[in-house]
Design a protein that fits this description.
Number of strands: 0
Radius of gyration: 21 Å
Distance between the termini: 11 Å
Number of helices: 10
Largest sheet: none
CATH architecture: Up-down Bundle
Shape: globular
Oligomer: single chain
Structural class: mainly alpha
Order of helices and strands: HHHHHHHHHH
Number of domains: 1
Strand content: under 5%
Helix content: over 70%
CATH topology: Fumarase C, Chain A, domain 2
CATH class: Mainly Alpha
């Protein structure tokens, strides 16, 4: 590895420790207040609370692999797949933040995203019918039961109440980058997408898969991989600190969280001497 990584064990131990400190404080400062004030019942708060909880839990799991990033390189593939899942949610969440003009549009967009999920589940039942050897009657009942459970999205006759979003992450990002006038938001979205796109090549099997799953065992590639890891953590922490500000009336110690973010950013690989 690069001379700056003469002691990778020390570097990843400290990096992981700072991440863990951030996560622990985020749980108490943000999730604690959201829970105590029941601020997850409105549609927009429910959406962002779900994103925050999912991101934080996956991030803490990923941090186990970060701690052992160099000593157990077998973990690196799983780590990048976990990070890709987080980045996917970040891009969707940023779209819900950036795209709508007002709260009413934001609720409508969240409903469309939720509806897309239900429509996808329904579409998969057709194949499940064959896999589970369901009769036509059993198959239709499962669809009816699902639709009846979500009356907000379906009419009594089973037809759709709203128009689905039906778009890809690529199109969401393209739309955001065209619309966003905020430099900080533009940088976050761009960085998240570049990393998401890179890790997607690892997630989905194809021509590059053999080379990508073996790259983690090459010492000469560890500097690049560490930089990608650091940049991913930078995006995740920035996104989490962005989300908590959506509950602007909660008594969250934003300064404390920002300071913890700064401590993580000090671990920039090519400037710390490890």
């Amino acid at each position: 590895m690069n001379n700056e990584f003469a002691n990778p064990e020390k570097y990843f131990k400290e990096f992981s420790s700072r991440i863990l400190t951030f996560i622990a404080n985020y749980r108490s400062e943000v999730l604690g207040h959201i829970y105590s004030d029941d601020r997850f019942n409105k549609e927009d708060e429910k959406f962002f609370f779900t994103i925050v909880l999912k991101t934080l839990n996956t991030f803490e799991t990923a941090n186990i692999f970060i701690r052992n990033f160099d000593s157990s390189r077998d973990f690196q593939i799983s780590l990048y797949i976990l990070i890709r899942a987080i980045l996917n949610d970040i891009l969707i969440a940023e779209y819900v933040i950036v795209q709508p003009e007002n709260d009413e549009e934001r609720i409508k967009l969240i409903n469309q995203i939720n509806f897309d999920h239900l429509k996808h589940i329904i579409s998969t039942l057709k194949v499940e019918k064959e896999a589970r050897k369901l009769t036509e009657s059993e198959y239709q009942k499962e669809i009816r039961d699902l639709k009846n459970s979500f009356e907000k999205y379906f009419n009594e006759d089973g037809t759709d109440k709203i128009i689905p979003l039906r778009t890809s992450v690529q199109n969401l990002v393209k739309s955001m980058l065209e619309k966003s006038n905020d430099e900080r938001s533009h940088k976050l979205i761009s960085a998240a997408y570049i990393l998401y796109n890179s890790f997607s090549k690892l997630e989905h099997y194809g021509e590059l898969s053999f080379a990508l799953v073996n790259i983690v065992y090459h010492d000469s590639k560890q500097q690049r991989l560490t930089n990608e890891l650091f940049n991913s953590v930078k995006v995740i922490v920035a996104a989490l600190n962005n989300y908590c500000k959506l509950w602007d009336d909660l008594k969250i110690n934003y300064e404390k969280l920002n300071n913890l973010e700064i401590e993580i950013l000090k671990m920039l690989p090519n400037q710390n001497g490890h």
